[in-house]
Amino acid sequence: MKDMLSSSSSRSVSDVVVAWYNEPGVERWVTALAFAFSERPAGERYRIFVFHKGTAEDAKHRLFDVLGTKCSDVDVFFEHLDNVGREADTWLHYTVARLRAGDMPVNRVAFLQGDPWDHFGTPHGGMERNLDVFSSKLVALLAPTAHPMASNPEPLFCNLMSESRVMRRGLSHPQRLDLERVWVEAFGCECKVDSYVFAAGAQYLVDAVRLSQEKPLSWWTSLHHKLRADEFNAWEIERFWLHIFGDGV
Predict the structure, then answer these.
(1) Structure confidence at residue 121 (pLDDT)
(2) Where are the alpha helices (H) located in 47-164, listed in sequence order?
(3) CB–CB of 203/121 below 8 Å?
């Protein structure tokens, strides 16, 4: 187990990325998932990246105390991040760091919130809060033997939402949403979609090979910088993940 991001000498099969604020129970489901990974065939490798933005100073110790030495063969990384940019900052931080290190996994990446069930479709993706069922389903999606993805990315245990581009212009939001400007600055062209389609909860399963090949590091770095500089906000980015993680525009 590790307590910070570091490059690996060999490429992993799949990664799980967790955006943790102060949600309770993260230690339990991450441990259940790590145990499920540890029981997989020796030729399969998995990593779990836990990014904490909350106020609990003992978060790392709680996580590793629950994991214990029994999961010593599973790569679990912990890093505390500044509390900015919500999960958008976490997803981009992970992507930029992995591209810079040159160790993006060769199979898939699962991006999950600290309480994944809070973002599941109704009724809870059919899993309620059963850690064994949740772990087995996630392992099945990340394993080399998994079925081909229907799309890239796929919403992970949550529902897709659609907002009409025309209607969005007239809707209020607690945070400013300048979607058409952000689209132009992010993708370098005018927005041509009729609707913004996105996963409620921003949880996705992503093809890691395409993630590492379809957009250069400089593009990811620029997007991350603009988010952290408050030129974009997380609610704007949330509506574009299908294009950010996918084929772009």
Answers:
(1) 60
(2) 59-67, 86-101, 131-142
(3) no
Taking the C-alpha atoms of residue 190 and residue 183, their distance in angstroms, rounded to an integer, is 7
**What is the C-alpha to C-alpha distance for residues 175 and 24, in angstroms, rounded to an integer?**
26
pLDDT in tens, 181-215: 999 999 999 988 888 999 988 999 999 999 999 99
**Model confidence, pTM:** 0.90
- The amino acid sitting at 93 is H
The answer to whether 219 and 226 have CB atoms below 8 angstroms apart is no
What is the tens place of the pLDDT at every residue in 77-102? 999 999 999 999 999 999 999 999 99
For β-strands 108-113 and 14-20, DSSP reports them as parallel
Alpha-carbon distance of 63 to 20, in angstroms, equals 11
Rg (CA), the chain: 18
DSSP-based three-state secondary structure for 155:
strand
The span from the CA of 1 to the CA of 12, in Å, is 15
